[in-house]
## 1
Amino acid sequence: MMPERQLVEKIARALPSGRRGPSRLRLGIGDDAAVLSPGGRTDWVLSCDTFLEGVHFRVKTHPPDSVGYKALARAVSDLAAMGATPRFFLLTLALPSSRIGPWLDAFLQGMDRAARELGISAIGGDTTRSRAVFVSITVLGEIAPSRALTRSGARPGDIIYVSGKLGRAQLGLELVRRGHASNRQLRALLQPHLYPRIRVELGSWLARHRIARSAMDLSDGLSTDLARLCAASKVGAKIYARRVPSVVIPAAVARKLSKRNLDPRQLALHGGEDYELLFTVSPRQAKKLSRAPGAAAITPIGKITRNRHLILVAPDGREQRLQSQGWDPFR
Amino acid sequence: MMPERQLVEKIARALPSGRRGPSRLRLGIGDDAAVLSPGGRTDWVLSCDTFLEGVHFRVKTHPPDSVGYKALARAVSDLAAMGATPRFFLLTLALPSSRIGPWLDAFLQGMDRAARELGISAIGGDTTRSRAVFVSITVLGEIAPSRALTRSGARPGDIIYVSGKLGRAQLGLELVRRGHASNRQLRALLQPHLYPRIRVELGSWLARHRIARSAMDLSDGLSTDLARLCAASKVGAKIYARRVPSVVIPAAVARKLSKRNLDPRQLALHGGEDYELLFTVSPRQAKKLSRAPGAAAITPIGKITRNRHLILVAPDGREQRLQSQGWDPFR
């Protein structure tokens, strides 16, 4: 099976690409978003994201307002990863006639809440009929010229940081899969999967103050996304398993769940959809991070290396290759 | 069943809309595209369009290169309708694993050809797995500030024009439905359905020289789209059946087809997907149209009226209401 990365490369090779195109394009296919320079005091950052019934969510298990909320939130996460301020979005919505009533109302309520929290307005879209619910969202954000954070700026010696605790969304998904989506007692544990928080302020701060040398959002799991950042920057990385901030599974919840796939460290290394930020900072700049929004939730987990391998240092000090085991829709 | 218009209104009401938003938005939900003013020497025009297996095309009957070509062409048609010059696009592609091989190659070849003809470059996108092929495209175009053509500018007394002959795409669709998609003898008749020509130059000329007062593209049939233009402009229209330029069905072809639905005048009034331009011009400006690109293919078909009805004048001079009988995915 062809992984998604190869598919994207195939598409990029086949089409006339903005990369070679007019000077107004600063960044084309391959990063979290594209960057356009209309020539004024701002650059525009654009990205699109798809959210599909049967692949990313299930109508039977996911509350419709969470589908609307998350569809927009995850699209905006690509803007946060570039350091851009969210401004506008276009909504493409294909859905069966049976979903036009109460389901759509709740979906739109969730999306409205996300839009208000993220400060983004709808400016257009397209609707059509389909068998399954299909959501595609294009987001536009603004950033000062040349300040966009990319995946390709990491350099050997940079310290690697993540925001938040990793694996929380995967734990939420495991709870949903086991039929606990509406369990009010588990609400706090479900929230990262159903209503992910997006690090817009942190991304914007890192870009504005030129603190981060590279950044991306963690959508497909640390082991997969770190490999992408390193590939784009032509570097390697060494991370310490002990330092990766992991989800905490309360004992009462652990008893409810089968043990399979629920090692917190495995969830943190490979679990997808956290939408936290992964970024690198030169050692000289590192102390400034204490002034970042949500500074307490930022953790150094390792270093960028010249050697292009991804190394995981186990708690006992042994080094091993970090294999990408995150989410790939085509795997 | 709720028609698409009501669905769009429901969505627009539910979400924070750019319409009330920051001053940089010139035009939000409801026209062919949104218009943003980044403050420089150009406005950005944005639109998205969906092209879905089982709704807009069938994998068994439509050549894959035509699916790629048309998906991009129809999206660009929204830019042409605003008078914008196509520049960039983002491609969202969801497809089954079985379509990643030769089908995708041919799809991308068709899209590449459309992109080169239309002068537009890919700058990003998203891919995922799905059961059916789903294409969503966001296009960006440029236009001089405040020159974008809208649906809402028509005034009583304006002359109504269309480009090209109408009903050609519907005739092509009828041929495809009857199994003639690969019939080389019918190539010229199939082309408007499989590889629609987009009126980018005409739209751009009408906007640049401030000739048109209102415009849109004919995607869902004249009777449906004229009603939309009149509703947006709060006017009515009177059109003359005799003047509407209709597809010509060669006698040899007519014999091959059942007669049902194939009255050229009906195809011209209600057939969808012609992607020709519908626009209005004040009588004082009308003579300038002789200098338009493709001027010979522009035809006056009636007038905008203060009375908000849509009237069709039959060849015998009798007047009747023009009912919208075009394409609506939710009807």
## 2
Amino acid sequence: MAFRSPVPDYLDEIVESLADDTNGAVADYIPELAQADPDRFAVALTTVDGRTYSAGDDDVEFSIQSISKPFAYAAALTDLGLDRVLDKVGVEPSGEAFNELSLEGESHRPMNPMINAGAITTHHLVGGPDCDPDERVQRVVRVFSALAGRELRIDDAVCRSELETADRNLALAHMLRSHGILAGDAAQVVRGYTEQCSILVTVRDLAVMGATLAKGGVQPVTGDAVVEPWVARQVLGVMTACGMYNGAGEWLTAVGIPAKSGVAGGILGALPAQVGIGVFSPRLDRNGNSVRGLRTCRRLSADMGLHLMEAEALGAGALRSVHPGTLPDVGEVLVYELQGIIQFRGAETVLRELEGASESGQPVVFDLARVPGLNDVGRRMILEAMRRLLLADRRVFLVDPDGVLPDPDVGDGRRPEIVPSASSTDRSH
Amino acid sequence: MAFRSPVPDYLDEIVESLADDTNGAVADYIPELAQADPDRFAVALTTVDGRTYSAGDDDVEFSIQSISKPFAYAAALTDLGLDRVLDKVGVEPSGEAFNELSLEGESHRPMNPMINAGAITTHHLVGGPDCDPDERVQRVVRVFSALAGRELRIDDAVCRSELETADRNLALAHMLRSHGILAGDAAQVVRGYTEQCSILVTVRDLAVMGATLAKGGVQPVTGDAVVEPWVARQVLGVMTACGMYNGAGEWLTAVGIPAKSGVAGGILGALPAQVGIGVFSPRLDRNGNSVRGLRTCRRLSADMGLHLMEAEALGAGALRSVHPGTLPDVGEVLVYELQGIIQFRGAETVLRELEGASESGQPVVFDLARVPGLNDVGRRMILEAMRRLLLADRRVFLVDPDGVLPDPDVGDGRRPEIVPSASSTDRSH
Amino acid sequence: MAFRSPVPDYLDEIVESLADDTNGAVADYIPELAQADPDRFAVALTTVDGRTYSAGDDDVEFSIQSISKPFAYAAALTDLGLDRVLDKVGVEPSGEAFNELSLEGESHRPMNPMINAGAITTHHLVGGPDCDPDERVQRVVRVFSALAGRELRIDDAVCRSELETADRNLALAHMLRSHGILAGDAAQVVRGYTEQCSILVTVRDLAVMGATLAKGGVQPVTGDAVVEPWVARQVLGVMTACGMYNGAGEWLTAVGIPAKSGVAGGILGALPAQVGIGVFSPRLDRNGNSVRGLRTCRRLSADMGLHLMEAEALGAGALRSVHPGTLPDVGEVLVYELQGIIQFRGAETVLRELEGASESGQPVVFDLARVPGLNDVGRRMILEAMRRLLLADRRVFLVDPDGVLPDPDVGDGRRPEIVPSASSTDRSH
Amino acid sequence: MAFRSPVPDYLDEIVESLADDTNGAVADYIPELAQADPDRFAVALTTVDGRTYSAGDDDVEFSIQSISKPFAYAAALTDLGLDRVLDKVGVEPSGEAFNELSLEGESHRPMNPMINAGAITTHHLVGGPDCDPDERVQRVVRVFSALAGRELRIDDAVCRSELETADRNLALAHMLRSHGILAGDAAQVVRGYTEQCSILVTVRDLAVMGATLAKGGVQPVTGDAVVEPWVARQVLGVMTACGMYNGAGEWLTAVGIPAKSGVAGGILGALPAQVGIGVFSPRLDRNGNSVRGLRTCRRLSADMGLHLMEAEALGAGALRSVHPGTLPDVGEVLVYELQGIIQFRGAETVLRELEGASESGQPVVFDLARVPGLNDVGRRMILEAMRRLLLADRRVFLVDPDGVLPDPDVGDGRRPEIVPSASSTDRSH
């Protein structure tokens, strides 16, 4: 019998246990959405390593709707830069319903890109001011496809159906025009925005797209850097502050996963450095969020420890040991054996230990054999430690079999000496 | 020359470079606060491992003021449990100034514990309904002292001075009483709350207290579990949603550190699983936040990658290698060598690999020698993997020199066989 | 030398004394309005008797703009009745700027017909649901012309200019459509509403139109009952509550004249039973009201006692005297000599006196020779008094040389006996 | 059989027909109020001539509660003048519930004196800044008694009962203190305000007090000028804008009587120059207004034409006739026979006629025999007409048997010649 991962079993269990919940109602203000099969239910989860798990109706396509907002925001940030986007759209929670104006006092900016006024403005920013409306939609589809790792397409029937009842969005577009926030033709912008909302996805697509944000913009399957790290961080921050229409605080405390829901019943989740999540179930609560979708997110957070504020079991140190050792042709050395990913916190423990050490003058070995990676701060701090040791006329060696610290220039051209390993002379650990 | 950590140098540089910024003004509505030396400036940073770095006037005591709010909230959650606290105080951003009522529509709950109405209510919850007012204050001082790791005390002069201009808080207390949210005598509750606000701290205290929240409630120096992990998570979540008076979204995107400021010029920061931060500089901007304090937080976030949404360099896998090996008296085995802290994401990579492996029937070795720790989900997932292998009649061995997986019962009484190590037969890595 | 009324002199003096006030700025968001001569200034005043006084540029035409709102409301009330209009537009002050949505909570009705959302809705109600857009505009022009007593026309250049920057109104129209308040095509309704706003008037037109409202809907020059009394009352009430954008209370206390201003610089005033007022001066304050127009209204109110709450010198009684008299062929009678217009209050004094009189059984004479008129309540009360006297077998006579009490049926077919006069036997008054 | 006025019958009919309406509930938040007999029902109406009619439980005393607000406002205006009162309390409708803060943006003034925050502030203004709290209450009782024409007294039991649940008012007082609006001790001011609210009145008192406002401040029974005309006008204006908690516009259009309601079930009405109204029925609707009280006001407005915007039947002119006549020793004259009360409008008709007359040089007679009175503007305009005639060397005579135009100095010392009457030579009218 082959080994079977418990993760799919777990997702199956969620789908099964929540299937009975038929609360809520399918969105009925758009005829095409009203025809959705209310019993559809699917969940998917993609790790930042690129593995996707799913359960339920994971191959059913549905229109992305408002879940398009964070991704279009990512595209606009990429195309225009942060400042030009912030000129037109804020980042503050609005405390109001998604289709209200919520313009900020003096600037008349929409409060954030997750409400319709902000999303319409954001759509129009994609591709820059000279972008043709059709090109803009194509650019949106292209970015979304890159995030999902497959060619996505627009559901024309949904789009047409929504355009028939687009008065609210037309109202917003005209109001934005009147405040000088939106420059394009109101009807054309709304058409483009509606096409963006009509892009079809599955829960697997959403999970992969979310995982891309969670991985700092790197698509975990294709490996493409679809958006830059600052863009992913900005999008996740705005999702956290403004993503779930009502109750940002309740969501942040009880679930703790940056998220966005859509009126077709989809929910996107993305936990930095961990996972992307996609859920689909068309019945919505009064706030317009998928009933089973919300419950699924709560289960994943509670069962999996997937929560922004989770700090459990992280006390273990990055410095595995400091021990005497020997190097051929060098003699006695002091070995600093690191472990785990080295961020600020890990590097700090190494620096602290170095500081406390006696001024022996002994050569120092940094053993990174158990280190899978360093982030930018971790790398800079370790190099700075080496620089200071070198300045004090200490010899510095580096054990780095996996090459996690390539090109170890400490800043002034000097580098540690690379050695394959250091033999320990203290066998006590 | 002794090695000197660059972290203090970095903090010194921050203090030096921002010292020139004399924008803002010392709070003047409380006579005692108005007398603060506006040039004071200090910053401290405590890692979840318990090391505190600081620079500037790091031994100057100042009144904690509104920074007491998250800690009193932690005390109330501890004393009454989540539901009874949520009955009286919400968790949503108010979008209004700190001293406005901001009561929720039907419940009349204050919107959150970070505005004064919510903080007064929260103070009164500490110790439960039968707690004597004096006992309540003592309990607050005790909890705060436990968080800081030293005996804190109340500044009576500040307290008296604030009580002379306590009309706003008295107004809030009476209004809360009129809505049945507050049961105690209004003047007495305001006195107790004002005493809470008058507790004296240094930036080092704040950094340690923040680090306690960042470490799931475990004081990183004393090792005491001052509050439970869910309490720390709830407090951090509310700080994120409601901590910085205006501009929650701007703070969340641009800085990304759960934080709280006080009118005496203090700022508390706490990044889950990383650090606690304390800053002190009495000059405030129009929103009542310390001018240099805000700039310091921005520098720390930008320079140190201290940001909730940071996902950089975390792609490295938990599964260092899978290779054939041999065990004495067993023979050929398949070794799964793990590395780093194992959370959901790490465990998942192991499960995935197991799933993909051929049904060889070979014994399996889990080598945790490079694993500094597992969180609860990681532990459960690894044990589940073992259980499934045992169910399939595979032999399962565990290498765990540091005892990071103690008592490895897979759920039905069975356990992996403990071995000191497995010799690799594949030398290619 | 001919006698010259001081009223024109007074108006001339106002125009002269306020001419220096060049504060404010001509509305610049509509190109055509921006070209207005800012120095234009005119005032007109029409009594309910139909005399119009004016001063300054009283023959300059300007677009009526928002002053069209009360008159279109009158037209809609006439065409649909009160209930059907109230279904779609409320009567409450909005406390917000004129171009905001201000929709009521559940009904989504615009708060009142004086804000743009309500005015757009009101325009569409004119002529009823089956009215063709062009017919609707023609109906508006026709009603306005009947109110002004001359053929008014639309300024096509202003209309075209406004339609070029009609985004706010288009936004409102679409939003109203989305809430089911507005049924027509958004662009078409906005065009019709803009045509309504582009109707050209002079201050003399406005004064006459206002006087028509002040006279219960009767055009004081032509004598036509343009709208019914309840319509005039409803319009005046809404103008009082919602007419001046900000500061309804300040206007009501300090000026006390129901009023409406327009962005072209016009102001309409209408004091029930007294006068209509028109002012024109294009420079606007920050609230969009004509600076000199407001000051003119304040002067008129203060100098002329034109104020809704004015109660000065009204203590004089409706009952001039009760005295013994004689009638040929009848003998001794008791004469009740009335004076002034008999409303509730006046009739009441007569009834009171009758009640106090001794039960002499003497015939009673109602002498209305000094009564210029009775309102409906006054008429009914006097007839009821006669009825009761007749029931008590008293003879009742009526002196009514001007026929102010035509057809004096007391309700059961009986009537007082008409006599030309009664000679007084008591010469003491 | 004595004549019986139909007015009492009419009020009896109202009481009888509305007695069945047992909707609403007695206010229960104050124990003493909760004990009120819910079936009590009374209505009273006082004319500006001083006659009071009443029906139902017209001798039952109840606490005045919020109806004290306009009268205390009148007292404060009298004691401090308009500007100093406006410094502390605004005049704008708040759009919020009566017990909310509703402070204006920059000034922090309460929005108006009809909400509790404004009423507490107003109470404290009575008597000026140096007034002792007890003296202040005595001054309030004294002013109210003067308005009612009898000694009113405080219900101590109601006052004590309200003080036990005074948290909202204490909250407001502290908040007002914190904004520098209120200077006194919060608890003391609330006690004084609560005493003010506990003054006992009957519907007859309210009707008389209202009639005093309606008569420009002159108590219609005692003839005392209790407050100045501008005070009465200001109070009536504020009642109109802010008196009925919700729905100022609905009240203004549908009822049209400045009014104020109290939580004990009272309603005060006052129609300028017409009547004061008092109603009492303890069952309240959700807005805190007496259910039967509101219906009574609606009936009175509809049946009696008692409406601010009423303009019916007022077309009749002030100029009864212009005819040739003769004066002994003078010869042929032109007689202008006036009628009714002469306000601006009436005087204007005379001036207009004078202007149109041929330049005959004939002497002019102003016959005021049918004029019961002139207001200030009317008086000034008639005198100005005389002045201009005298300037043109016309002889001017005055017939004024009732002395309605005493001391007819036209401004430069000249006066018309007084004559007893002028014989008409034109018998056609």
